[in-house]
Write a structure and sequence with these properties.
Helix 7 (about 165-170) packs parallel to helix 8. This protein has two domains: about 85-270, TIM Barrel, CATH 3.20.20.10; about 280-405, Lyase, Ornithine Decarboxylase, Chain A, domain 1 (Beta Barrel). The strands form two sheets. Strands 1, 10, 11, 12, 13, 14, 15, 16 and 17 form a nine-stranded mixed β-sheet that branches. Helices cover about 30% and strands about 25% of the residues. It has helices at about 5-20, 25-35, 55-60, 70-80, 95-105, 115-130, 165-170, 200-220, 245-260, 275, 310-315, and strands at about 20-25, 45, 65-70, 90, 110-115, 135-140, 180-190, 225, 265-270, 280-295, 295-300, 320-325, 335-340, 350-355, 365, 390-395, 395-400. The protein is built from eleven helices and 17 strands. By secondary structure, the chain is of the alpha/beta class.
């Protein structure tokens, strides 16, 4: 998590200077974390959907990460940061013929295919342009579990890939024929997110590995890659027992690789988003009002779901603390519900315990917002000011985007 004690004065100075909510990213700490991640026995891609900020891309690029890109906008953003297109993996359930062609023209050569249509389109394009390309087939699995699948539920229909028997039907229909420029190098399966239990993670990875090896035999694929997607979690509550230990992840992957992949000469890929950047961002917002409604304490803040939508989507709030010059450790705490400024009951940030003397013009600091923060939210609703984004890099503070009023985009 963000080291608040080391950044408290900087955050308070920024809050007073910017006079608007802002995101704050510790890129020095992120770089050290990325260096540790690169020791894992897998090929790593950064899932850009987690946070597409230019300076985050450059930091991870410097540390040797490749990139998981799901749209033309994400592609252009990554290329502008100097990333080699050969280090880009094109993912996402929606890939038109035109989009695949655009990615090929930009130099991308590795694709995750989610349907027979995508397979046909890439096969045609690669042959037409005489460009050798590589592909992974995305696979959905039906899980014997009551836990809700992050991408649609255990047995629910989702847009992500096909079931094993459906890929076998694709092959039976002849669509694997004439792959002169298209090399299917592996299979992809990712359905569970934000897992902080290493035993649960290892069970999922083991199940995926066994089923995908079996499917590769049925499809007669020379299996070189199993892409496990993402899913590595970070705690959204200040509970040390919920933290996923990197050494345990390393050990689990090493054991699975030795048990299942070494004999095949295959490797694992991971597309990390939340686990890569989530813990290195904070979000600061000013308290505007304090009141009691139906015997419950309420705080109203400048920033809410227009900048941090995740609590409304998941009912799981970000960790949050009172940001002051000094906190009185002897002061009693009180439960407060925090709401943002939007005219909807969806704009509820969570329930927290704060010092009972919390007041307007104090600030709140939300933690773990390096991933799925601003770019996942709805910044234009009600025409509020867009938040600033600030980085801490090389022991210096840089405002990479100042707060921007609605006049900048209202036409």
């Amino acid at each position: 998590m963000l080291d608040v004690s080391a950044h408290r004065e900087v955050l308070l100075d920024l809050a007073k200077k910017l006079k608007a909510p802002f995101f704050y990213y510790d890129l020095d700490a992120l770089a050290k974390h990325a260096e540790r991640l690169n020791r894992l026995p897998v090929k790593l891609f950064y899932a850009l959907k987690a946070n597409p900020l230019s300076s985050i891309i450059r930091t991870l690029h410097t540390e040797g990460f490749r990139f998981d890109v799901a749209s033309i906008g994400e592609l252009e953003q990554v290329l502008k940061q100097g990333v080699d297109p050969k280090d880009i993996l094109h993912t996402g359930p929606c890939k038109s013929y035109e989009q695949l062609e655009y990615f090929l023209e930009k130099g991308v050569r590795i694709f995750v295919l989610e349907s027979a249509q995508q397979l046909c389109d890439l096969k045609v394009l690669s042959k037409l342009k005489k460009l050798p390309v590589q592909a992974l087939l995305r696979v959905q699995l039906i899980w014997d579990s009551d836990k809700e699948n992050v991408l649609g539920g255990g047995g629910c229909q989702t847009p992500f890939g096909l079931l094993p028997n459906e890929w076998q039907e694709v092959k039976a229909n002849g669509l694997f024929n004439d792959l002169s420029y298209l090399d299917i190098i592996g299979l992809h399966c990712f359905q569970w997110g934000n897992i902080v239990d290493i035993n649960e993670l290892k069970l999922i990875w083991t199940t995926i590995t066994k089923k995908l090896i079996h499917l590769s035999d049925a499809l007669e694929i020379d299996l070189k890659v199993i892409d496990l997607g993402g899913g590595l979690g970070i705690p959204y509550h200040h509970n040390a027992n919920e933290t996923l230990c990197l050494s345990e992840v390393d050990q689990a992957l090493s054991e699975l690789k030795e048990a299942y992949l070494e004999e095949l000469g295959a490797e694992y890929w991971l597309e990390l988003g939340r686990y890569a950047v989530g813990e290195y961002g904070g979000y600061v917002s000013r308290i505007v009002d304090k009141k009691t409604v139906n015997n419950k304490g309420l705080l109203i803040t400048e920033g809410g779901a227009q900048h941090l939508l995740r609590p409304a989507l998941t009912q799981d709030p970000f960790p949050c603390q009172l940001l002051r010059e000094k906190l009185d450790s002897n002061m009693q705490t009180k439960a407060f519900h925090v709401h943002g400024p939007l005219c909807t009951s969806l704009d509820k940030m969570g329930g927290y315990l704060f010092s009972e003397d919390v007041s307007p013009d104090d600030y709140l600091l939300y933690d773990q917002v390096g991933a799925y923060g601003f770019s996942e939210s709805m910044p234009f609703f009600l025409c509020h000011t867009l938040p600033a984004e600030v980085i801490f890099q090389d022991n210096k503070v840089h405002i990479v985007r100042a707060p921007v009023g609605a006049e900048s985009w209202l036409k």
